[in-house]
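User:
I study polymers; will you set down one protein's sequence and backbone structure tokens?

Assistant:
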Amino acid sequence: MRKSPCLAFLASLACLWALTSDRCPSLAVAADSSGTPTADGEPYRWTQFRGGQRDSQAAAAAELPIRWSETENVRWKLPLEHRGWSSPAVWGDTAVLTEATPDGKQMFALAVDLRDGKILWRKLIFENAEVEVAHVMNSYASPSPVVDERRAWVHFGSYGTACLSLQDGEVIWQRRDLPCAHHRGPGSSPLLDDQGRLFIHYDGFDVQYVVALSADTGETIWRRDREIEYGTTDGDQMKAYSTPLLITVDGQAQLISPTSKATIAYRPDNGEEIWRVLYQEFSATAQPLFDGKQVYISTGFGKAHLIAVDPTGTGDVTLSHLRWDTPRGIGSKSTGLHRDGLIYNVHDAGVATCVDAQTGETVWTQRFGGMFSASLLGAGDYVYWFDHDGVGYVTRHGRDLEVVAENRLDDGCMASPVPLSDSLLVRTRSALYRIGAPVDASTTPAP
């Protein structure tokens, strides 16, 4: 059906609003196998870690598979040459990811054509004469990239950050002058906002700070030291791996920034502190969640708590704005999922939990087994969970637990899955998959 001029105008406004988002709400439709366009021809977007809206939610109209294996519902499989836990970022038919040699001496970025799984370009970005030893559970290419319609930003912690041409991977700018001893390897992903600012955590063994860089030039806009009383001189309890979250509270933007022993909210424009909440845990890894009213934070290691914080306060809000605190079965690494008043969470050792977001009370618990690092994904009526051993669980969204499918691939996931309009992009430790029902090539439109 042809759109009326009024509807076309409204659609254009919606897509302008979602320029840095993954989708144009209410306009997205299932994509053809040659790409992932939306209804008005806009390219599909999953622009950064957990998507452009930072909520790990697939578009409402997405039709994702719930069953797969090495021989079922695999569009293509691309073996990967090196090691990396970064999750892909997507613009249109292009996915960008990073990898590094196991010794960390060489660091790469590559772009993959989503239509056929072929590599479009692969570039050596950084070479290192010396590196710190990365933990066995980490890699030298764990931070996820960011993309827009023209560029890709790749980050390897203190080893370097670079802006690349999305078309051919050529370097536009790079920074290698932001020091930090990660001690067990980098993990925090950069976050891009709609003002052209790239926010990055440098929470190391030796120094801990946050920077905002110009996405266009790489120049520093502001830098803010953490200024936290850690209560120890052990740098192992000062480092962290979490990715920040942007929210809006009473019309004011806040950069929610977890680290060891605290989560701090900064003003994105100048780095001034708005509020902080303190806790005992360290090495925060999960990205916070936000439901429009409360921020939900996994506090990290040793035994993680999940806490709910009212973000309307100022200063130290630990006593005044902490709404609930639950320590039972909370994961230290995987980022959970908020949907319709429920928080889905998985412990590192494989215990899945559904928590009531208003009260912090446990709704249900299920032992999957295995180990988990990948973030959870929501799509339609389902929640997706991927473990280290190659098992992908699909459960039905809701207060009553129902395991819909238990799927297996040859290798497991450290990276988080990415939803396309009609399929899943899954990176295991050794390959990249596009998982979805086969498409009749004779009816596939040209890209």
In short: The chain is about 5% helix and 35% strand. Helices lie at 5-17.
